[in-house]
Specification:
The chain is built from 7 helices and 8 strands, in the order H-E-H-E-E-E-E-H-H-E-H-E-H-E-H. The protein is of the alpha/beta class. It has one domain (6-211): 3-Layer(aba) Sandwich (Rossmann fold). Helix 2 (34-45) links the parallel strand 1 (25-29) and strand 2. Helix 1 (6-16) crosses helix 2 (34-45). It starts with 5 loop residues before the first helix and ends in a 12-residue tail after the last helix. The relative contact order is 0.20.
Length: 222
């Protein structure tokens, strides 16, 4: 067992990301599992925390089979897994419908988490994209692609655990990659946590609120 829980993983990841402290950074979390990890990183680096809303597109009646991913935005970012689409026999019209359904779910989550928040500006900044782990990588690929479109100065991918083969596919997609552990053979992300409980919407909102920087006008001079 590598990590006690997501907070422990975040603290260990923050140690590995310590060289970025003092830079003009934004930490982006992939909800929901990535939020507790990213909150520890943002707190340790003393930088803002924001969300990268990504949803997986699963094969009908086979929710464990990911055939793509979508990212909220205008326009939205869609990443396809053409191999899995071919294996499952999903037709293009059906794939587009599944993507539309996934984007509708993202819109609900955006309203829930960010209705009263202005998104952080990423242009020219060091952007650290954090999740609680990577398995197939489709969700992270979509998130990196969407983040790149917002023109960061440096794009960093940071995760506690991932399979070695999957990580090889990310070279060139991020400017820097930080992964604490790459066990082989790889089972699933949850196998490397002692506590891998579901992260609730209430916990996501609470962690975002806790990591929201205080407005400048609220600061008092001594």
């Amino acid at each position: 067992m590598l990590f006690q829980d997501r907070h422990d993983a975040g603290q260990q990841l923050a140690d590995a990301l310590a060289p970025f402290r003092g830079q003009d950074c934004v930490v982006l979390a992939l909800p929901r599992g990535g939020i507790p990890v990213a909150a520890e990183v943002a707190t340790a680096l003393d930088v803002p925390l924001d969300l990268m809303l990504v949803g997986t597109v699963a094969a009908p009646r086979q929710p464990e089979l990911t055939i793509g991913a979508v990212v909220d935005g205008s326009p939205p970012t869609i990443v396809r897994d053409d191999e899995m689409i071919s294996i499952t026999g999903i037709r293009e019209k059906q794939f587009k419908k599944l993507c539309a359904d996934a984007l509708s779910q993202l819109e609900r989550r955006r309203q829930l988490y960010q209705a009263r928040r202005q998104p952080e500006r990423l242009a020219g900044k060091t952007v650290i994209l954090v999740d609680d782990g990577v398995a197939t990588g489709s969700t992270m690929r979509a998130a990196l692609q969407a983040a790149r479109q917002r023109r960061p100065g440096l794009l960093v991918m940071a995760v506690p655990v991932a399979p070695p083969g999957t990580m090889e596919n990310f070279h060139g997609k991020a400017d820097r990659i930080v992964c604490l552990q790459m066990p082989a053979p790889f089972r699933n992300v949850g196998s490397y946590y002692e506590n891998f409980e579901h992260v609730s919407d209430a916990e996501v909102s609470s962690l975002l609120e806790a990591c929201t920087p205080a407005p400048r006008h609220a600061m008092h001079l001594r």
